[in-house]
Specification:
The protein contains 15 helices and 23 strands. Helix 1 runs parallel beside helix 7, helix 5 runs parallel beside helix 6 and helix 10 packs parallel to helix 12. 33% of the residues lie in helices and 23% in strands. The protein is an alpha/beta fold. The chain binds uridine-diphosphate-N-acetylglucosamine.
Length: 411
């Protein structure tokens, strides 16, 4: 399993806070999103040396940064850069962030946090600007919802603020812990890691550091579910159980064999012709991760009976359903709920990836379907899966990339 996209993006953004020294990152995945954020950083005046084949990235952000992040880069991914830019330069203007179209994805919680630290927010035609007339000052911020990006952005904004910031109802995802670990290496003072209350004591400066990015728990989940769906037996390295407890419980409930080999490795196998149906509800961590529900739905199609998936985090995350139904699935959605009938057999079809994880779900469906499946819009998959085709082939999948050029090389 490669390095985690959703940890690498905020950790690289945190690297913008270093006014002294360079940072070097290891286990950086080869993804178009990493290429995009590198280009964004270069446009701000940061020196970046991204070596995707070696999975390393070095950056030198010590020169003053430009304070405007252009739409060209920010619209292609979802990274929290407003916070660190504001903390560094006292003002920042950023195009509204992109990423998967899985809901309206407002950033009001991020902005509320910056305002509490003393910034003024101006929103205008697709841009948001934050300005601090004087030094940012620590404050208490309560999140209405434990937003992952909001928590990351406000932590980064408050690291250099004067005094103490407390974030109440902070998100607790492992990717946030990974970012906090890097910030602490840079000299930040943060306590409460992994809990819903974080305290950040502002420091004078942060210094570049070396850091190894955690492995991608969604990528691990994808191979775990692929193994179970194809009745395979796969040893997955870079798959810590502690980061995927909810998934392991749900897969075991369905009858899948999961062995925790060591703290970093799991072995997933399945011999059952018929899995048991299951009910899954997506929630903030430690609940079932929303990014995994489309992939999980492929496994529930192979169960005897009806499963339900309730999506409580994003309002528009069932776009894969229409595509899966083209392959013989019987999935009905109503509001936040999808009811999935176990069909145990799918047929190959021409389908389209509608977002990153939906794209991965279609690949898994294609692996179990009879006949050939052709998946369009695979640039979504290139945003988040390091060498998906190569890794799947090494497991015995019959899969070819038809569109030779990766989104990575196009950008
Ligand atoms: C991050 C992940 C994404 C994952 C999600 C939830 C990255 C790059 N992306 O996205 O893969 O699915 O966490 O685990 O790390 N919300 C607001 N106001 C805000 C912020 C969020 O209403 O200011 C809402 C969103 O619309 C959404 C929910 O809160 O309904 C969760 O969003 P959030 O946790 O912020 O997700 P992201 O950081 O966008």
């Amino acid at each position: 399993v490669s390095g985690a996209k959703n940890a690498a993006l905020p950790i690289l953004a945190a690297g913008l806070l270093a006014t002294e020294g360079t940072s070097k990152f290891y286990n950086v995945p080869k993804l178009s999103d990493i290429k995009t954020i590198s280009m964004l950083f270069e446009s701000l005046g940061v020196k970046v040396d991204y070596k995707p084949e070696e999975n390393t990235l070095e950056m030198d952000a010590t020169k003053p940064l430009l304070t405007e992040a252009s739409f060209e880069f920010v619209s292609k991914m979802r990274a929290s850069v407003l916070g660190p830019m504001l903390a560094r330069e006292g003002s920042a203007k950023v195009a509204m962030p992109g990423g998967c179209s899985i809901g309206s994805r407002p950033i009001d919680q991020h902005l509320k946090g910056f305002e509490a630290l003393g910034a003024t927010i101006i929103q205008d035609a697709g841009f948001v600007e934050a300005r601090a007339e004087k030094e940012l000052e620590g404050s208490t911020i309560f999140f209405d919802f434990p937003s992952v990006g909001g928590t990351q952005n406000v932590i980064m904004a408050s690291c250099l603020a004067k005094g103490k910031t407390t974030i109440v109802n902070a998100a607790q995802e492992p990717e946030i812990e990974d970012m906090i670990n890097f910030l602490i290496k840079m000299g930040a003072k943060i306590s409460g890691k992994g809990t819903s209350i974080l305290e950040i004591e502002g420091v004078e400066k942060l210094v570049g550091a070396e850091y190894t990015i955690m492995s991608d728990r969604v990528e691990a989940a994808t191979y775990m579910i692929a193994a179970a769906a194809t009745k395979g037996d796969v040893l997955i390295k870079g798959a810590p159980y502690k980061d995927n407890v909810a998934l392991v419980s749900k897969m075991r409930e369905m009858g899948v064999n999961i062995e925790i080999v060591d703290e970093d490795t799991m072995r997933v196998s399945n011999k059952l012709d018929m899995l048991k149906p299951v009910d899954v509800k997506t929630l903030p961590h430690p609940g079932f991760l929303t990014d995994m529900q489309s992939i999980m739905s492929v496994l529930t199609l192979l169960a005897k009976g009806t499963s339900t998936i309730t999506e409580t985090v994003f309002e528009n995350r069932f776009m894969h359903v229409k595509e899966l139904n083209k392959m013989g699935a019987i999935i009905a959605t109503s509001g936040k709920e999808a009811r999935i009938a176990g069909v145990r057999k799918l047929s190959g079809a021409e389908v389209n990836a509608t977002d990153l994880r939906a794209g991965a779900a279609l690949v898994l469906a294609g692996l179990v379907a009879e006949g050939t499946t052709t998946i369009g819009n695979i640039y979504h998959i290139d945003r988040g899966y390091n060498d998906f085709v190569g890794k799947m082939k090494s497991l015995g999948a019959n899969i070819e990339r038809i569109e030779e050029i990766m989104a990575y090389e196009m950008s």
